[in-house]
Amino acid sequence: MSSPNSTTTTHGIEVSAAAQYLSERSRPEQKRWLYAYRIRIRNVGDEPMQLLRRHWVIADGNGEVREVRGDGVVGEQPRLGPGEVHEYRSMCDLPTAWGTMEGSYDFVSDGGEECEVHVGRFFLVESAENAIVVE
Question: Which of 20, 82, 94, 107 has the highest CB neighbour count under 10 A?
Fold first, then answer.
């Protein structure tokens, strides 16, 4: 089986994503499954970049898709110099026991050039392989 997590590099920005099922906070009898996810963003390029906006595409096990757009991530718009890392955690709820997330971040360089950085698809599923690992 392939990993439920993802790592993608676009325009010198590496994004790693992993999720974990929160059984103690989920309510399957009410059709509510809750997942925590961790995102690690690393600037592997040569110039500073600042995250401006996020765009998530979240699909549940029924094939229903919702999109989330907004400024920054968890209230922040981090600026990353070459080699710097920003990590954050958030949550996502689903009406089914599994689903997927993928999306993108809009970044801007110090020179004003904007680019779209992809976040590869990762899985929201109850699985021993699907755990947030602190590195």
Answer: 107
